Amino acid sequence: MTPPRGKLDLDPVTVRKARTLARQAGRPIVTMAKKHTTVSVERATLRLAGLQGADADGIPWVNRLLDAVRGDVGIEHGVAAPVWDALVRGEADDLSTLAQKASAGSVRFRLPEGRDLTRAQAAARKQVGAGVRRVDARRRERERLVKRWGDPKQKPWIYLIVATGDIYEDIPQAQQAAREGADVIAVIRSTGQSLLDYVPEGATREGFAGTYATQENFRLMRAALDESSAELGRYVRLTNYASGLCMPEIAALAGLERLDMMLNDSMYGILFRDINPIRTFVDQRFSRQVHARAGIIINTGEDNYLTTADAVEAAHTVTVSQLLNEYFGKEAGLEDWQLGLGHAFEITPELPDSFRMELAHALLARDLFPNAPLKWMPPTRHMTGDIFRGYLLDGFFNLAGALTGQSILLVGMMTEAVVTPWLSDRDLALQNVRYVMNAAGNLHEDFHPAPDGYIAQRARQVLGESIELLEKILAHEGKHGLLEAIADGTFGLMKRPADAGRGQDGVAKKAPGYFNPATDILEAT
Amino acid sequence: MTTEATTGPAAAQGAAQILRPYGDTTGDGMVQLSFTLPMPHSKVAEGAAAQLANKMGMDPALVVHAKAMGPDFTFFVVYGRVNHLIDVSKVEVVERDFPLLTPKEVNAAVKRALRRRLVVVGACIGTDAHTVGIDAIMNIKGFAGEKGLEYYREVKVVNLGAQVSVPQLVARARAEKADAVLVSQVVTQRDAHILNTKEMSAAFREAYPADRRPVLIAGGPRFDEAMAGELGVDRVFARGTTPGEVASYLVDQIVTRRATRKTGV
């Protein structure tokens, strides 16, 4: 398939070369990821099988059960066989009783063999398969509701954030935001959740600068937005974060509770959270397979590169990351319409021609990924507390989004870096978006940058630098060029060796005969 | 207030000591204000906004804009004149006792003075598992819109994470030849943060000769910045400290002071 040549008229040979290089850089990572499993992948499998709840200390039963199995036989064979072997042997009637007995130390796990193994595998397949079918049913339910209530009438979709820390405060705020025009609601997570090696349980009312991602919080918010969708006559989407140490589990919960979009970046956790690279890539692949199956749109985190590095110097790192995210996403089964690749309006406003450069970068992303629902992120780095100047900057951000045909627009707040948004901040920000869309929403029809003009040249330059960076990554010695490139700081400014970082002790190389019914089903998708 | 910080009247050389806000004429006292009231938009709501502005000392108060935000809220912009006088000679501020540097300046200063990277070892010590503070300062993700110490090219960051014992911390600081050690303490049950920090500073004093000891910094939301002496550390950073402030302090301590010491010898 040849994609239509966009407004920049990029050379198709160059574009193909960039994709080929990304594939070459990504493929060894996928091979490596397939050879490993993690505690979180195994726990996600137990969650798909329906194991919920937590003990009196708030530690989820999936963690208790996994730890018990791991203590007896390790995770390198997958936990499914030993767990369902115990159930088939009659150690407990169901998973949750088994988890309770296991954490009290009254069950011993073994690696079943022969007919015992066959029986355990069949039982595991049946129960995990039922969970995957529940995810499928949720996807069909979404499709039905979107048909009934409809998609937003305009593009880009308007994406707003709520983050009070208390799910019961978040709900009325989210419903109000939807009434004011938000098409997508994102609930920001509590600071530090990405580094927890378990998913908290239940409805939560205390978070730091955000609300914990829990299955119950997901359920409550989705139900509230279903109410709003019915009231407003358009399907309001819900977003959360499948990132950090528990991303496979959170992806599974998102699938089970019909979340619609998930933040899910292939390298963010490694570079910005110092999570072990192998852990991240293994968890990433599983979570993307779940998202693919669940019909969830992922949002990638390229905006983060620009908040740490200069947005002009580092423009090509965004493109490289988008290409890698596309490769990893498609390899895991995601389709173009599910790839919400990110980028951001973060060039220093004082720089001459900064807006022209923003247009060049945004258009480059649009032309490289014509069928992806690109996510356009507002200025944060240059929001200073001067709310008046910030409001103007957000107006230009909105205009750039309209001119370059972005798909999902995260609404910028003039009080960024000052306070968590007030009711009036959100109202003013939405007025800003509405004015620009109303005044210039169709301006992209008239906007054709001159073929040899500043914008086209700048876009070609960034694409060229992206290819150079990909070549540099591939030039690394060793069989995992990208891992080694990450280790020596080629990416961003952080050095992240493959044998360090958080969550490393939760990674295991798969043993021969590794069995996981969830990955079996998802790989076949 | 730290002993090193200076307190006192701000110097306002060449400016009047008694001031009023300035709109377009000297002494007009004009200010602008915006706020939201939890009531539907109506004449009464506008009157309510004017009443608030009056009570805040704006007289006359002009409600120049009122807009309904949904059925239950109204947003206002008010312009008006205040009668208050500002006595600049009575303004008190706590001054930082080190210059605030940009990441570029920090990198340049380290490069120039050390000719190697500045090594910072950080940890949450004791049973404290709250790495939010140390991560906000050290992880590249940063805090309050500022990138963490990892972002600084010339700073080598070794973040040991949570529940690190004091002997472990000392051993790692020695192995890394740390220039500075940062410990974060969030949990304050039974003064755990104070006891842990004292234990840490004592251990470093024992392990190092006085002139070789790394700069010791304690941070956490419940610390008082005046406690440095009592805790045996060089500096305490309280709630709201940004990575840039920590980096600037380190440059001041390690780079500037070291240079001074050398020229002194």
UniProtKB/TrEMBL annotation, chain A:
Gene3D superfamilies hit by this protein: D-Lysine 5,6-aminomutase alpha subunit
Matching InterPro entries: Cbl-dep_enz_cat (IPR016176), Lys-AminoMut_A (IPR015130), Lys-AminoMut_asu_sf (IPR037086)
Start and end residues of each D-Lysine 5,6-aminomutase alpha subunit domain: 8-520
Coiled-coil features, chain-numbered ranges: none
Domain of life, per lineage: Bacteria
The protein's name in its UniProt record: Lysine 5,6-aminomutase subunit alpha
Organism: Nocardioides jiangsuensis
A Pfam family: Lys-AminoMut_A
